[in-house]
Amino acid sequence: MNWPAGSFDWNQARAFLATAEHGSLSAAARALGQTQPTLGRQVTALEESLGVALFDRAGRGLILTDAGRELLTHVRDMAEAAARIPLTASGQSQDLRGTVSITASDVYSTTLLPPIIADLARAAPEIEIELVVSDDLRDLSRREADIAVRHVRPTDPNLTARLIGEASGYFFAATSYLDRRGRPASREELKSHDIIGIRDAARMVEGLKSFGIDVPASLLRHRTDSSFVMWELARAGLGIGIFPAERALTDPAMEVLFDGEVAVRFPVWLVTHRELHSSRRIRTVYDHLADQLAAQLRRTAADFAARSRR
Questions:
Q1: What is the pLDDT of residues 56-65, one digit of tens each?
Q2: Which domains does the chain have, with CATH numbers?
Q3: Among 76, 102, 127, 212, which residue is least crowded by beta carbons within 10 Å?
């Protein structure tokens, strides 16, 4: 397979990579913000320039040929190398002006981060913040976000993380549900109650077991991957859920169970790319988030403890 340097076209390579990763021209076109015919022409042009077929057409889908699989490895390496170029440039920037993107869960994005970002805006008005609301582990190396607030320490050696505190989850249920079904006196009695859970019931059951909470998947009758929807399902009286203290301090419709006993504990990590960590703008936001989130976590824990004692 020959690819003369003079004939290299990154747009064709990117079209091939997107098509291989998404499995169809239509999905790849949506991902790249292009039309399907344009993307198809780029893939065809790449095949013609290389003199090989990269895909077998199977109905509406596409299957990589042996040549396509071989090329895919190299194009992925190229994409990762290309992504490091702006990372390196951003990492050397000492200018505060510009945008910093932060990704965090829906709960943190609405309960903890807004006042912290407002305080940052007063201290560094040159910096613009883009908040990406997501529970997924965003690929920081490809600049889907500059900084992530996560509960899992990253394993990627190109990422750097700081443990800024520990958060806790508690058992909550609506007063209407507890009046109807009774108030469990122990974790063992949870087996006679409905549990609000995530869509992957098996994964949640295993996760709860690691915290000493043993309930069968059949009790997870109402499931969602949205923390806010989960809370609203519990507020509607559909079952008992585990929620962070931040969701409960201002909601009189919900009761904490077992005298405020902690159901789960989880770390809070602040993550960024190693190269971005040397950028003055991103370092400013990173340090501000670390200090303010740590303080807010301590205040929330103290406020929740005081409420539980009342």
A1: 876 666 888 8
A2: 5-91 (1.10.10.10), 95-310 (3.40.190.290)
A3: 212
